[in-house]
Design brief:
The radius of gyration is 16 Å and the shape is globular. 46% of the residues lie in helices and 12% in strands. It has 8 helices and 5 strands. With 185 residues, it is α/β, with parallel strands linked by helices. A 5-stranded parallel β-sheet has the order 2-3-1-4-5, with helices on both faces. The chain starts with a helix and ends with a helix.
């Protein structure tokens, strides 16, 4: 099976029922709670989660040898999901190359909401230390030391004026996600 067939098998374009689809992007780096917030938000609003780590897992591409190809397939899928009435939650680190990402997402013509995730530094460090670099059993493809190094190379957040909503993932996360759903609606 080639990459396109594999990608389409594991990442189909489903029919949605949202008359006004939107995108949610996370202003957060590794370990801030993006995946948890994405899952909870999707449960509440029916959005589709787009997660590049899942693509790496399914394609066994932890070294990103196929990255250019699957990024193109992912971008095509994003366009098709939106056109089919799906709101999307993009589970990725927006601060890394944020302007390029924002240009793409905003260029799609749908509302884009940027949600900043904040987290106590000690809680963040503890979360990263609990992660295990164990592909393919887990989607996490980065260990604590690598995450700290990567996070040190990028700004922790995009500029404040771009942020639409903030969630502190240290405490009361579900309550804050409920407020986010009301904000988006």
């Amino acid at each position: 099976m080639n990459i396109r067939e594999t990608f389409n098998k594991y990442f189909p374009v489903v029919e949605g029922n949202n008359e006004k689809p939107y995108l949610v992007l996370f202003d957060a780096l590794i370990g801030y709670g993006k995946s948890y917030v994405a899952r909870r938000l999707a449960e509440l609003d029916g959005s589709v989660i787009v997660d590049n780590n899942q693509v790496r897992y399914q394609l066994n591409d932890y070294d990103d040898k196929l990255a250019k190809q699957w990024h193109e397939l992912q971008n095509r899928r994003i366009k098709e999901l939106l056109a089919n009435g799906n709101s999307l939650i993009i589970d990725e680190c927006l601060p890394i190359n944020y302007q390029k990402k924002l240009d793409f997402y905003r260029g799609l013509g749908y509302p884009v909401f940027i949600v900043r995730l904040d987290c106590d530094r000690d809680v963040w460090a503890e979360r990263l230390k609990r992660r295990h670099f164990n592909p393919p059993e887990e989607y996490s493809v980065i260990n604590y030391d690598d995450a700290v190094e990567l996070n040190s190379r990028y700004p922790a957040h995009v500029p404040d004026e771009l942020v639409d909503f903030t969630i502190d993932t240290t405490d009361n996360v579900d309550e804050q996600i409920n407020k986010l759903v009301n904000f988006i609606a």
